[in-house]
Structures are given as C-alpha cells and as structure tokens.
Amino acid sequence: MWSGTVHALHLAPRSFLPMRGQDHLVLLAGIGVEGDRYATGDGFYSDRPEAGRQITLFEVETLEALARDHKVVLDVADHRRNITTRGVPLNHLVGQRLRIGDTLLEGTRLATPCRHIEQITGQEIFNLLLNRSGLHARIITGGTIRLGDGVAPP
Fold it and tell me: Would you say the pTM of this structure is higher than 0.90?
C-alpha cells in the first residue's frame, strides 16, 4: 500500500507558454484541467486527441534524482506536467485508479519526454527522462485538488 501528497500544481493556457504554478486545479471529468491548454484544445498535441491524456502527473523524486545523480537541476514547472507528487509510484499506476482529494483518476499510460523540454530548459535531458517522465491519466470524477492533498488508491 502506498500514499503520497500533491507537491505542486501547474497549468499553461497555450502551447509554448510557461507553466504557471497554482494553489489548486479544477479537474473536469472526461475533459481535463480547467484553463489548461489540453482542455481548451490549444496544446502541442491537441491535434492528436486522446481520452487518456486529460491530466499528467510527475514525481518530485525524479527531479531530486536528476540533481543528485546527474547534477541536472530542473524547476518543478520544467517537466510541464499538471501535478507533481511525492510518495506516489506513478510508473506502477497504468491501468490503476488513484484518488486525489475528492477526485478520481485512472492512469492510462506512461508519459514520454518530448524534445520540447530540452528547448525550454537548455539541457540535454531527454534520455535521462526516459521511463521517468510521469503518467497520463483520465479524469473519472472531477473536482478541485489543492497543494498538500493526499494521493492514494481509492
């Protein structure tokens, strides 16, 4: 059994804009994050819609490991995922459900890094993020999530 917390929350209203830190996000079931580029159809991959890519999650432990093992320092917004977690085994949650506050998500597939992150950060990190780039999920039950909310199996 595992349990974790929401470490950081981010959204970007359009592709290529910086991620903006938030104290809460409104999750819309079957759609995405209110105000985020993918919910509005303004994301880089919006021309390739995918129901299982409504929200994205990333482990803060990956950022810590990159700094410790590779001397690569990334800001918590640089990974461009909506939710940064602590203590959540995201790679093991494909096909699994997880609860964040009152919301319910289902992990659909592991995220893959894109070269855009290298353009944003100016660092060659694509290969370092393979198999460590987070989780795509579908929003089953929407609601508001906040910094510090618990993350756990339903």
Answer: yes
